[in-house]
Specification:
The complex is a heterodimer of chains A (122) and B (113). Chain A is mainly alpha-helical. Helix content of chain A is 52%, strand content 0%. Chain B has 113 residues and is mainly α. Chain B has two domains: 57 residues, Orthogonal Bundle (Helix Hairpins); 33 residues, no CATH class. Chain B is 47% helix and 4% strand. Chain B has a two-stranded antiparallel sheet with strand order 1-2. Chain B is elongated and about 65 Å long. Classes of the chains: A mainly alpha (122), B mainly alpha (113). Chains A and B meet through α3 of A and α2 of B.
Chain lengths: 122, 113
């Protein structure tokens, strides 16, 4: 046997043991053993979520009115004679009350659903 | 999925219908993103049985269009236009130029050559 043939023999024996080595390696380092490179769909879970960043493009969604703030303070001011009042809201309610008295208020809402012939888009 | 009313809620900025729509899509996507990723993972996994993969793919396809990320577009925060939006700032190029020349955006100056 020549030196070259000897070398080929050695390479063959090493190649047959390579999968075992890879398996052992994946066990040690805690990776997935995937010898045939099957598509497992793990690449979709690898990257982080994009939603939280995209959600706040137009600013955070928290929306509160002056009435919400007033309500929170009024809880604490329960025993005392003071109250926080939302001026705009009281004005608006007064105006609506006035319109109702005069008979110019908006009509009551429909309880039945209106069936439309239009095609619904998703 | 939550109700539409929750999706359409906006912070107090200039409200154009295009911005409101885009914002709703963003909220819808953020809420269903995890579900979409899980379904995608199942559908593309070749080790799973074909029936399961097909079911996942069908479920993914049956989700409404407004929950998909491809529907989202960065719009100008002031004018609501969808074209020539400067990415770092989120403004249309005209609005961006105006504000830069007035010195209202830190880190940007007009060119001089």
């Amino acid at each position: 046997m020549s030196a070259l043939q000897n070398g080929f023999q050695l390479a063959k024996s090493v190649k047959s043991k390579l999968p075992l080595l890879n398996k052992l390696r994946s066990e040690i380092f805690g990776t997935v053993y995937n010898p045939y490179n099957a598509r497992t769909g793990s690449k979709y879970l690898k990257h982080g979520l994009k939603g939280p960043k995209l959600r706040d493009y137009y600013g955070s969604r928290t929306l509160f009115s002056t009435q919400d703030v007033a309500d929170q303070y009024n809880k604490q001011l329960d025993g005392t004679g003071f109250r926080v009042v939302d001026g705009e809201r009281t004005e608006r309610l007064a105006r609506a009350e006035h319109y109702r008295r005069v008979g110019k208020a908006a009509p009551p809402k429909k309880t039945e659903k209106v069936v439309s012939n239009k095609k619904k888009r998703k | 999925m939550t109700t539409y009313a929750k999706l359409f809620r906006l912070p107090p900025l200039r409200k154009s219908w295009s911005i409101i729509k885009d914002n709703a899509k963003r909220q819808a996507f953020a809420e269903t993103e995890l579900e979409q990723l899980a379904l995608k993972n199942i559908a593309r996994n070749t080790l799973l049985p074909t029936k399961v993969r097909m079911q996942a793919q069908l479920q993914l396809a049956s989700m409404p269009n407004y929950t998909k990320i491809s529907q989202i577009r960065n719009r100008c925060l002031v004018t609501g236009s969808a074209r020539a939006v400067v990415g770092q700032v989120g403004l249309n190029r005209n609005k961006f130029r105006d504000m830069v020349l007035r010195g209202e955006i830190p880190g940007f100056t007009g060119g001089n050559w």
